[in-house]
Amino acid sequence: MTPDAHTSRPRRAPSSQVDPEKPEYVWQQVLDHLVERIEAGQFGCRLPNREVLASEYGVSPHSVARAIRALVERGLVVTLRGKGTYLT
Questions:
Q1: Amino acid 17: pLDDT
Q2: Angle between the 50-57 and 26-39 helix axes, to the nearest 10 degrees?
Q3: Does the keyword Transcription regulation apply (predicted)?
Q4: Is residue 41 a part of any domain in this protein?
Q5: Residues 44-79: pLDDT tens digits?
Q6: Distance between CA atoms of 11 and 21, rounded to whole angstroms?
Q7: If you count Cβ atoms within 10 Å of the first and of the last residue's Cβ in the chain, which end, N or C, has fewer?
Q8: What's 80's domain CATH number?
Q9: What is the residue range of 72's domain?
Q10: Helix, strand or coil for residue 15?
Q11: For residue 13, is it within any domain?
């Protein structure tokens, strides 16, 4: 995420990234976009927390949690309880 030029708050991901009408699950759409963002280097060493990502994508924290679980399974991130989710 990059800060907005006028505020210190991060910009929201485009809402068109998650479309509930698509045949893919919402968490899968979030996962695909997170992978793209990771590969593009949009995150430092740590992902934003689940609530922030859920707000950015306009989805439930549960959908984000499922997407993060898939990132862990792919070996792209590691989650440390109480500390956050870090890129590997």
A1: 74
A2: 110
A3: yes
A4: yes
A5: 999 999 999 999 999 999 999 999 999 999 999 999
A6: 24
A7: C
A8: 1.10.10.10
A9: 21-87
A10: helix
A11: no
